[in-house]
Amino acid sequence: MSAAKSQKLPTCSTSHSVDIKTGSINPEALTLNKAQRMAEFFRLLGDPNRLRILSLLAKEDLCVCDLATLLEMSESAVSHQLRTLRSLRLVSYQKQGRKVFYSLLDRHVLELYQSVAEHLDEEQ
Known about the structure:
Elements: H1 3-6, H2 32-45, H3 48-57, E1 62-63, H4 64-71, H5 75-87, E2 91-96, E3 99-104, H6 107-123
Antiparallel strand pairs: 1-3, 2-3
Helix pairs in contact: 4-5
GO molecular function: DNA binding; DNA-binding transcription factor activity
Domain HTH arsR-type: 30-124
Organism: Waterburya agarophytonicola KI4
């Protein structure tokens, strides 16, 4: 497929915002690869128990036993969800003696959680 055919340009006659410097429209869609990775990320994040874990870790670092108690889940089930969250690089852990404490990995995770929570609060 030629380059001209692979990049489809808008063909409508509606007036659009333009880049002041170049005078042209420069839409940038996600690449298919990035869109697929993002979809997988949101699919894995779409589990209610994982979101409940994130909601607690957004407030403070907690160990598996505390998370299990607060969420009324087994420690095994919490550990399973934490493994998935670790694989997404959403949480990190630190060993302190025999206990392992989990925390949100970085500010992006906290900002994402807070943005979605605020958005949902606005709907009510």
